[in-house]
Amino acid sequence: MAPATILHADLDAFYASVEQLLDPSLRGRPIAVGGGVVLAASYEAKAFGVRGGMAGRRARELCPHLIFVGGHFKEYQRLGDAAIAVLGDFTPLVERISIDEAFADVAGCTHLFGSPETIARAVRRRVRDELGLPISVGVARTKHLAKIASQVAKPDGLVVVDPAAELAFLHHLPVALMWGVGPVAQARLAERGIATIGQLAATSPASVARILGKAAGEKLTALAWNRDPRAIVTQRRAHSAGAQSALGRKPVDDLVVRPTLRHLADRVASRLRARSRSGRTVTVRVRFADLRSVTRSISLAAPVAATAILAEVAEDLVRAALRDHPEEREISLLAISVSEIEDDACLQLEFPLGLDDEKRRPGARRGRSRFVADRAVDKIRDRFGWEAVGYASVALGRSRSVPDGFRELAEKEL
DNA sequence: TCTGGGGTCCTAGGACCC
DNA sequence: TCTGGGGTCCTAGGACCC
Questions:
Q1: What is the pLDDT of residues A377-392, one digit of tens each?
Q2: Residue A241 Cβ < 7 Å to strand B
Q3: Is A101 noted as a catalytic residue in this protein?
Q4: Where are the beta strands (DSSP E) in A44-199?
Q5: Which residues 64-123 in chain A have a CB closer than 7 A to strand B?
């Protein structure tokens, strides 16, 4: 049996822990990062049932003494990077999952630093001593099991899963701890009396596939037996880039829709251009006042990265979606996403277009001049910042419920 | 002020081609 | 002429993760 060399390291209640680090008077107290919506809650707040994503009002009901604190987003980025860098001091095989979470494979460095458990202890100690933050670590033979181990280790703990006792560890745990089992899958499994990973493992793959679908059935059955073939992937690039904006309740009106889509298109397209990438498929989402949402998408003949073109395509798609739902009078969110992303091998390339092409390449003939205009805007922003120039930021103004700093933290490397 | 923002992956039906 | 199978792409929706 191969030794357990995969580490999963996960900073505990990350944003809230950073706030408590920066302001000692917050330590030991229930705090929430955010305002209108809870972005993160300290363990003291979690004890009252406060959770990330929860409306601020609901959180205050659950925990009357909850303290809301503003986000130090630059600090989150800096400390998150520093914690992941500690893993990098042991091995280059580090796979970062998010701002506060990463896998590492230490198989190649035990001769230098000792057993995986020794390394895990060293990582936890260094993050605590050098950064002042609690971090939980799971150590196991596979990524899935290491991740589950770190969840079990929380808060501020270490769990090492002996390869000889993997299934004994795994099978008594609830299915909800598995990667890919959310509320819906959990409920469907519960209907069939499947509550633990062991009960899932004891169910035939065909039955699980009938309950959750073919792919999920096969995947979860494998994971329940700790057959997880995934290796560490050191650099992963995003396959799509998007932006969304919650609007509260706004009437279906060009005066709302157009400036919002402009702004969103600007965010997405400038990110793409910054990495010399562009995407062929444009998807919009419209969420109505009752929170039901619809999507519309189109795959273009040529990839886009120009703000104006993306905005026009998005407007057409949103108009089509609204036409299909004439009964809806109010919208609560608009989103744009670009997928089928590729590198721009040669940016200057502009093919002469026939009339037919114009249908599937909206605005492409005007692409050249817009590209020049976008580059000018990008350059000004490089020097003076994002707000220095651009579309529609005025129109969105105060309605932005989440600071831009938080949005940037969530962006994946393109 | 009743629900944020950025992503990944899967399913299913229809169009289209061989 | 009718029937059928297989593959691929596109679109809409949804579950899930951080």
A1: 777 777 777 766 765 4
A2: yes
A3: yes
A4: 67-69, 94-98, 101-105, 135-140, 158-160
A5: none
* Helix runs in A324-403, H state only: 355-360, 367-384, 393-396
What percent of chain A shows pLDDT beyond 90? 76
Residue A404 beta carbon within 7 A of nucleic strand B: no
**How do residues A287-307 score in pLDDT, each as one tens digit?**
999 999 999 999 999 999 999
* Nearest nucleotide from residue A297 CA, by C1' atom: C11
Instruction: Give per-residue pLDDT as tens, A144-169.
Output: 999 999 999 999 999 999 999 999 99
In this structure, which amino acid lies at residue A191? E
* Rounded Cα gap, residues A164 and A170, in angstroms: 12
Surface-to-core class of residue A319, CB atoms within 10 Å of its CB (0-12 exposed, 13-18 middle, 19+ buried): middle
Do residues A251 and A360 share a domain?
yes
Cβ atoms of A198 and A171 within 8 Å: the answer is: yes
Same domain, yes or no, for A256 and A191? no
Number of folded domains in chain A?
A: 3
Catalytic one among A101, A166, A312, A315? Answer: A101
What pLDDT was estimated at residue A183?
Answer: 94
Q: Which nucleotide is nearest to A410 (CA to C1')?
A: B6
Angle at A240 between CA A239 and CA A245, to 5 degrees: 155
CA angle at residue A40 from A57 to A136, to 5 degrees? Answer: 150
- Is there a single domain that holds both residue A245 and residue A333? yes
Under the banding of pLDDT at 50, 70 and 90, the label for residue A368 is low
